[in-house]
Structures are given as structure tokens and as C-alpha cells.
Design goal:
Helices cover 32% and strands 20% of the residues. With 134 residues, it is of the alpha+beta class. It has a single domain, classed as Roll (CBS-domain), CATH 3.10.580. The strands form 2 sheets. Strands 1-6-5 form a 3-stranded antiparallel sheet. Strands 2-3-4 form a 3-stranded mixed sheet. Helix 3 packs antiparallel against helix 4.
Length: 134
């Protein structure tokens, strides 16, 4: 079966050049990558949000983690209560820049199979989160 993605054409040229900065949500809860999975799940529940921005000890964003990803780690056979967020991330990313167009970011998200992207500045600090509308 072949899936066909239909997109409407923008009514004007400004819609094409809309950037991630125009559409992102401001940075929500940020946690350090040395936090355990259990604590992160508690923070996520108390913040009533879908994801946490994870930063290293220098303040650089290392990724974005959601409830389903944390629950999968907790329910895995190799789980221990000492597993930290830094232990569940492979490569850093994917990330996007605030000057990336929304179309480019959406394409990257589909290619990377992610629901949301951390938006970082030139120093790697989290500015917000870009997510596709559902």
C-alpha cells in the first residue's frame, strides 16, 4: 500500500517562509540528564506536559523525552532504578534551529519519525519545542 500525503498550497508567500521560531512552543520543563527515569516520569506527570527537554550539566540540550519513551525504558527487561536520562539517549538530536522553515522542520520530523523537535540556539541551549499540529 502506498501512502499519499496531501498538503494544501499556501495562500500567500509568507506561509512558505514561516520559521520554526514563529510556530514553536516556548521551552517547557527542562531537566538535567543525570535525572533518573522514575524521577523524570514524576516530573512529567506533575508538569502535565507531553515531554521534557533534557540538558547536560553545561546547559546544552541533549534531547527531548516523552512519557511513552520513559515508560518503555521503565518496562524494559534491563531496567534498574539507577538508569539516568543520559543512559537512554543514543546520538544527540534531532534538533532544529529557530530560523529553519516550518516545512523543512516538518520534513525532518517525518524522516526522523519524531513528534516534536527541540529548538536550540547556536550554543545548543533549548529555546522551545516545535511540534506538528494534530
Amino acid at each position: 500500500m502506498t501512502l499519499v500525503h496531501m498538503q494544501s498550497c499556501p495562500a500567500d508567500a509568507t506561509a512558505v517562509s514561516r520559521t520554526v521560531a514563529d510556530a514553536m512552543d516556548t521551552a517547557g520543563p527542562q531537566v538535567c540528564d543525570d535525572m533518573t527515569v522514575e524521577v523524570a516520569l514524576s516530573v512529567l506527570a506533575s508538569a502535565r506536559t507531553g515531554h521534557l527537554l533534557v540538558c547536560d550539566d553545561s546547559g546544552r540540550c541533549t534531547g527531548l523525552v516523552g512519557q511513552s519513551q520513559l515508560a518503555a525504558v521503565r518496562d524494559g527487561s534491563a531496567y534498574s532504578d539507577r538508569i539516568q536520562l543520559r543512559d537512554i539517549f543514543g546520538d544527540r538530536g534531532p534538533f532544529t534551529s529557530p530560523v529553519t522553515t516550518t516545512a523543512e522542520a516538518a520534513h525532518m520530523m517525518r524522516y526522523s519519525n519524531v513528534d516534536a523537535l527541540p529548538v536550540v540556539d547556536e550554543h545548543g541551549s533549548a529555546l522551545g519545542v516545535f511540534a506538528l499540529a494534530r
